[in-house]
Amino acid sequence: MKLTILGGGGFRVPLVYGALLTDHAEGRVTEVVLHDLDAGRLGAVARVLAEQAAGSPDAPTVTATTDLDEALRGADFVFSAIRVGGLEGRADDERVALAEGVLGQETVGAGGIAYGLRTVPVAVDIARRVARLAPDAWVINFTNPAGLVTEAMSRHLGDRVIGICDSPVGLGRRIARVLGGNPKEAWIDYVGLNHLGWVRGLHIAGRDELPRLLADPDLLGSFEEGKLFGVDWLQSLGAIPNEYLHYYYFNREAVRAYQQAEKTRGAFLRDQQAHFYEEMRNPDARALAAWDRTRAEREATYMAENRESAGAGERDADDLSGGYEKVALALMRAIARDERTTLILNVRNRGTLTVLDAEAVIEVPCLVDANGAHPVTVAPLPDHATGLVCAVKAVEREVLAAAESGSRATAVKAFALHPLVDSVNVARRLVEGYTHVHPGLSYLK
Length: 445
Hints:
50% of the residues lie in helices and 15% in strands. It is an alpha/beta fold. The protein has a six-stranded parallel sheet with strand order 3-2-1-4-5-6, sandwiched between helices. Strands 7, 8, 9 and 10 form a four-stranded antiparallel sheet that branches. The protein has a three-stranded antiparallel sheet with strand order 11-12-13. Strand 12 and strand 13 (372-375) form a beta hairpin. The termini are far apart.
C-alpha cells in the first residue's frame, strides 16, 4: 500500500513514519513517497527516516520527489501536511496581526484567516490532482487551518478527504487519565469545529464521569485545561473546552502575552527548525538524535505564552508525545482493513449539527470503516457555543469565497466578521498588510 506525504520535508514527518513502523499486519503501508518543494529539506527528513528504519527489516520503503504528479500517481492514501509560505509566512502572519493589536495565531483569528487565504488555492489544486491521478485515494488532511482546508478539498473530493487533529485526542486522554480511566476505552462527547470544540461528557463503562470531574475543584485544577482556563470558568461552562478556546475566552491576555514575548511562536519555530536543517547539511550529523532533541524542545514550548498568562506552569511530561500520527495510522487501518473504530475527525456535517448545513466540515466523533468516516449523532450545542461555531464557520465560508473569486472586498469581510477582529478598519489594514508581505496573496484584487 502506497502512502504519499505532502510536505514530506516537514519537521513532523518522522512521527508519521515512526507510527508506520509499529504496524506489521497484512494490508499495511509498504511504500512511502515524500513530496516537498524543497529538496534540501526532503533529504534531511529522509536521513531521519533511514535511521528510524534501521533494524526493521519490513520497514516501508521511502522515496522522495519534488514532482507532485509523480508523488500522487497511484497513491492509496495521501497525507497532506503542507505549509504554504513556510514558517517565515507564519511569523509574518503573527507580526502583522499583533501590530494591529489582534491575535496572529496560525489557525485562530487574523493569522488563521491569512494562512487560510494563502493555503486554500494550493489545497484545491492538490485536491483536483488527486481526483485525476489517484481517484481511489483517501486524503488525510493535517494542513492548517485543518477544518477550513478540509472543507475546501471536500468540494472536489467529497467524503474521501478527512481532516485530523491531535488536540481533541490529547484533551480526551488528559480527562480520562485524571478520572482514572483508560483513554482507549472512553467515549468522548466532543463537538465543534477544528480548534473550536468542547468535551461535554466522558463515558467510562457506560457512565458519564465528567460531572464528577467538574464537581471536584482539586481534580479539575490538576491538568492542563484546568490550569489554563481556571476551575471557576470550567465549572461555569459545564464542559472542558479545547485549549485553543483560550484565545477566545482570554483574548486580551493572550494578545498581550504574545506582544511581550521575545519571539512569536512562528519566529521561534522558524529559527529552531532552520538550525536543525542546517545541522543536517553535515553528512556526519546524527539525524535522528538531532531531530528528537529539536522535537522535545518544540513540544515543551507549545502554547507557552498562554500558559504563562494563565500561570499554568510547564506542560506535563505525559502531554509531550503528540498524537496526530496515531490518529492517522488508526484512520488508515480502519479504512484499508475495515478495522472499525471511533475517532474524533473533521468531516462533512451531514445533519449532525442542525445549525450548520450538510456540507460544513465539523469536528466530532466518527465511526470509521472501509467506507470512510461517518459522524455520530450528537446533542445540540448550548447557545454560547452555537454562537461561536456559527460565527467562525461564516468566516471560513468568506475565506473560501475570497479564495475562489480573488475578491479583496470578500477577504476584508472575512477578517471583519471574525469575533477576534474588533473593527472593519482593522480588517482593511490587515488585508493591506498581509498582501504586502505575502506574494501568495497577490490574487486578491
